[in-house]
Amino acid sequence: MNKDFHYFGTYSAAILAGHSHEDALRIARSAFFVDLCTQPVLNSVGAPIEAATTMLAMEMADARSDIISQQDVTRTWASFHFLPYDLYSERKGCGKKYMQKYRLICKPNGDLLVDTVTQVKGKSLEATGLAMHVLADTWAHQNFAGTPSRVINDTNYHFFEILPDGSERRISLRPNPASPDDLIKGLFTGTMRQGKETSVMNLGHGRAGHLPDYSCMRYRYLPAWADYEEVIKDNPSDFMHAYCQMIYAMKYLKGEGGTFEKATYDTETVAPYKEKIEAIFEKRQTDDSEDWKAFGESLSGQEIPDFDTPDYLEEYHKAPEDKKDDTPMGRFILAALAQKSMVTNRVYKSGNILLGISGDYKDWGTKGIRAYLKLAKEVRKGGVI
């Protein structure tokens, strides 16, 4: 998913969940900032780089193949963009190394999604926004894993788009980032085929390009992990499920309902707007921002300003040291540290070391989590993450 859904779409979902215009903006900014918060960005304002929620292309290109570097890459992408579905899944005839990667495959409605949502209840609106990004990406990025792996994430020539009239055509994926995706001709950019198992070219849905992020796309393909069993992806349906689940989750976080349940969607709230939302999802374009913006403004009666990244960073940078955590970016950083710590801890406790060794900050231990002392301090004093 791109800015159109993570920012403008999340704003409209927050409004439908009962948030005010101002609160919906805070949630939407945080949801979108997940795709912007890199180590260089954090470095530029003196923030802890361990709170990075994404990586620049140049960072990825410079990533080494040693285990520590691979763990750093995987912690970031698995925690925020490819949340693992089943850390204990079984598959006959597979070795331990393969199973560790296989168990990181992302799908909706896993146990880690429940943890992601429930851990931010009673926390900041920025934590809500970050959780909504993670939730939404479980729908868009399903069937891929947030770790560099050819045996899991590779695709091949068997890749067909299912057009609106039911006909099909072969999708052409080119390793040329300078060429924009062309929905009319069916030409898309994917990462270069790379035989090395742990190459970053084999991270997530890189081999499939941006197809998982376009709401209008329907396609069938063969993921490397599927043993030549075809997978059909219906983005309009998946994106609608994500949207309805976000509304349900945000109502839960506001205090409506006792527990957060898997596979539960607030279709009732969406019902009066279903046709408008489906029309946005089905529209054949690579950026739905204008349509989502117009829809969100029609709901709130307020103008949705574009996200001003410099202002977001500057407020944090200029704040006194003891006030930084009270800024929107400060609250986002604490939420990011909590999410990364939780996911890393759950994966490590499952016997999987691909995200590294982890301790639990709630136990105030420091082994393996020196970077999270800031988070532990905030939890100790009862602060709002």
Order of helices and strands: HHHHHHHHHEEEEEEHHHHHHH
| Adjacency order of strands in the biggest sheet | 2-1-5-6
**Biggest sheet architecture:** 4 strands, antiparallel
Average pLDDT confidence is 91
User: What amount of the residues lies in strands?
Assistant: 5-15%
Enumerate the spans where pLDDT stays under 50 for 5 or more consecutive residues.
364-371
Helix content: 40-55%
Q: What is the terminal-to-terminal distance?
A: 25 Å
Oligomer: single chain
Instruction: Specify the structural class.
Output: mainly alpha
Task: Describe this structure as you would to a colleague.
With 385 residues, the protein is mostly helical. The protein has a domain at 3-146 and 308-380. The chain is built from 16 helices and 6 strands. The strands form 2 sheets. The protein has a 4-stranded antiparallel sheet with strand order 2-1-5-6. Strands 3-4 form a two-stranded parallel ribbon. A hairpin with a 5-residue loop joins strand 1 and strand 2 (168-170). Mean pLDDT is 91; it is low at 364-371.
Attribute tags:
385 residues; mainly alpha; 6 strands
Précis, in short:
The chain is mainly alpha-helical. The protein has helices at 3-16, 21-33, 39-44, 57-62, 67-80, 96-102, 111-118, 125-140, 150-153, 235-253, 267-270, 274-282, 289-300, 309-318, 328-349, 373-380; strands at residues 159-162, 168-170, 172-174, 187-189, 218-221, 231-234. The two termini are 25 Å apart.
